[in-house]
Design goal:
Blueprint (H helix, E strand, L loop, with lengths): L2 H6 L3 H18 L28 H29 L18 H16 L4 H18 L8 H17 L2 H18 L4 H69 L9 H29 L15 H10 L3 E7 L7 H21 L4 E9 L2 E8 L18 H11 L3 E6 L5 E8 L35
Parallel strand pairs: 1-2
Antiparallel strand pairs: 2-3, 3-5, 4-5
Length: about 475
């Protein structure tokens, strides 16, 4: 047995639940959908534009029509109600019927009661049905014999039933149909079958109209989502073009100039040649990263089409940092291969960002990198000391300070924790805890921008200060 069956209960209990829910929705629990603020004219009535009526708002014209018909039903129904209520009066002594009575106060009240739902049906269709049904029930209780249904009340409730089917849920509509058929059978047992057919007609027409409108709304929503997705793709392609035309061009120029510089001057020191070679290699790495990002931006679904860096490339990262003058020591505990892609990429970027900031703000400093993987948790620690004697920190350009923001966003997407604080010795410590299994509602790490570091010339960028709080 499935869960639904266990909740409903077996046999008669489930059947009773299927019957009571629609009845409860119809009598007190159900609610109708709000009316459209500016409904369009139906296709079959658009010819009214040629006579001027169709140029008015449809909602205003429809409400005016309901009020007009309600007034007709009210004035035509009051005499009928007075006659039906007087049919049970005794005959006169000579056997003649008494003259038709003038409308009494109860007859006027019932006439308004039966016609008012038609004027209220567009604002409150379900409430209008409840009002109409209760009015017919009261009329049937006052008339002891003969035809207990008043034509004005029947016409009004048929109009109301149509809007109930259009604006209410299927469960509520079924409950309304059951109550209406049952009430008609109690008031007019001999014509119950005909009443059921008459009640089914507006309900069926309204249900078909609701299905058509629902299909149209779904189609419009799909088209809107398609337009939004197309707009996002166009914007991503525009950003990709800007990155290619501006950033990639400048990085290419840096690589070319760094390669050509040793040949422009004779007797260039070997150390300078190595620094220029390192600059060229770094620029080429940045270009490779840029091409990967451009490929992601140009993809319609944003899928990553190139291998993402992970801690398996940690040695390359540390070697590049040592080439800039940092004294880097590393300690790896556990097997860091085979990490989930999002976790591996985030860990790599955190270490890369921390080392880049140490290069800028604490050049020549001693940096300790620790990586530990145990129990489904990856822990990172990058701690750097103050700048070495004779080295000056590189000031951050305007607009810096986004490196830590990017790291925190990456860690938050994985449900981890990040700490980046200055230490007493004058350096900086970055620690992170990354669970290998992210919470179900967290997006993939690929959903975040790969780079958010405009302050950096290296691929990772950075924004923290080596000796001050971020």
């Amino acid at each position: 047995m499935n869960d639904a069956g266990e909740r409903e209960g077996p046999g008669p209990a489930a059947t009773a639940g299927l019957l009571t829910r629609p009845l409860a929705a119809a009598l007190w629990r159900g609610r109708a959908e709000p009316a459209a603020a500016d409904p369009p004219w139906p296709f079959m009535l658009r010819w009214t534009r040629f006579i001027g009526v169709g140029r008015l708002p449809f909602g205003l014209v429809a409400q005016g029509f309901d009020l007009f018909v309600a007034l007709i039903l009210m004035f035509s129904g009051i005499p009928v109600i007075s006659e039906r209520m007087s049919e049970h009066l005794p005959l006169l002594i000579d056997g003649r019927q008494p003259p038709a009575p003038s409308p009494t106060f109860p007859a006027v009240v019932l006439g308004v009661w039966l016609a008012a739902p038609l004027a209220l049906r567009r604002r409150h269709p379900l409430g209008a049905w409840r009002l109409a049904a209760s009015g017919l029930l009261v009329m049937g209780m006052l008339v002891r014999s003969g035809d207990r249904l008043v034509p004005s009340g029947v016409i009004a409730i048929l109009f109301v039933l149509y809007l109930v089917a259009v604006r209410c849920s299927r469960e509520t509509t079924i409950g309304v149909a059951l109550v209406t058929v049952l009430g008609a059978a109690l008031l007019q047992p001999r014509s119950a079958a005909g009443a059921a057919v008459l009640i089914a007609v507006p309900l069926l027409v309204g249900f078909l109209v609701r299905m058509r409108w629902t299909s149209r709304r779904e189609l419009e929503q799909q088209e809107r989502r398609h337009r939004d997705a197309e707009a996002v793709l166009l914007e991503r392609q525009r950003i990709a073009r800007e990155l290619h035309d501006v950033v990639a061009h400048h990085m290419s120029m840096i690589a070319i100039q760094a390669e050509a510089a040793p040949y422009k001057t004779q007797d260039v020191p070997q150390e300078t040649r190595e620094d220029l070679a390192e600059i060229r290699a770094t620029a080429l790495d940045a270009l490779r990263e840029m091409r990967r990002i451009l490929g992601v931006l140009r993809q319609e679904d944003g899928a990553v089409t190139a291998p993402q860096p992970s801690l398996e490339r940690l040695d390359e990262l540390l070697t590049g940092a040592r080439g800039t003058g940092l004294e880097v020591s590393a300690k790896v505990t556990g097997d860091v291969s085979g990490l989930p892609p999002g976790v591996g990429l985030t860990a790599y970027r955190i270490v890369q960002e921390a080392l880049s900031n140490a290069m800028r703000h604490a050049p020549g400093s001693a940096v300790g990198v620790e990586v530990a993987r145990a129990g489904g948790i990856l822990r990172l620690s990058v701690v750097n000391g103050p700048a070495a004697p004779g080295h000056s920190p590189t000031p951050s350009p305007p607009g810096a300070g986004h490196g830590l923001v990017g790291m925190r966003e990456r860690v938050a997407m994985l449900g981890g924790e990040l700490s980046a604080v200055p230490i007493a010795q004058g350096g900086f410590a970055v620690t992170a805890t990354l669970p290998e299994t992210a919470p179900p509602d967290t997006p993939s790490a690929y959903g975040s921008p790969p780079e958010r570091h405009p302050s950096d010339g290296l691929p990772s960028g950075g924004g923290r200060r080596g000796t001050s709080a971020p």
